[in-house]
Amino acid sequence: MQTSRSNRLYSHRVAMAQARPRAYRWSAGLLLGLVLLGSGLACAPRFVGPTAAGYVFALNVPTSFIFRGDVAELLVSVRNAQGQLVDGVPVLFQVEPAWAQSASVSPQVAYTQQGTAHALLQARSTGVVHVTVRVDNATQETRVTVASRPSPTNE
Predict the structure, then answer these.
(1) What is the residue range of 2's domain?
(2) Residue 152 maps to a domain
(3) How many structural domains does the chain have?
């Protein structure tokens, strides 16, 4: 009788030990999903305007973290008062003066095509770069963090 009880206890412990990793993976997956969803919502473009010409625009930076020497894409979507994408609108991109020697945006002026203007930010120093975009008489700012690339580890 003692043997069957200890066998049942052993079987129960084995079953619980096997269930824990699955529960942990499920919890970790759920947590990761919530973090990604929350970060996606936090980074949703915010429209600014209307400008003097009646435009509204939103700056979207798909990644706000890059390694030194890499580039970050800057996207600006411009719409008219009816909400339609507008072509041919000049969008000015500028880094803050303190970063003028260490970071650049190319091109500095881009014209919207299918309602969107594209530019690339590249930084040669580490830190937080403030980028300002201007459409007509309105501006919007974003920040991109630039870090040194980690050294490879010898494991």
Answers:
(1) 1-42
(2) no
(3) 2
- Is 4 inside a domain boundary? yes
Asked whether residue 126 is assigned to any structural domain, the reply reads yes
| Strand 47-48 relative to strand 56-60, pairing | antiparallel
Q: Are 91 and 111 in contact (CB under 8 A)?
A: yes
Going by C-alpha positions, the residue among 120, 114, 133 that lies closest to residue 47 is 133
Rounded Cα distance between 26 and 14, Å, is 19
Same domain? 96 vs 138: yes
Structure tokens at 9: 């206890």
Q: What are phi and psi of 124, to 5 degrees?
A: -105, 0
DSSP calls for 47-94: EE---TTS-EEEEE-S-SEEETT-EEEEEEEEE-TTS-B-SS-EEEEE
Q: What are phi and psi of 43, to 5 degrees?
A: -100, 10
Q: What is the pLDDT of residues 15-63, one digit of tens each?
A: 555 554 444 444 444 444 444 444 444 456 788 889 999 999 999 998 8
Distance of CA 29 to the CA centre of its chain: 20
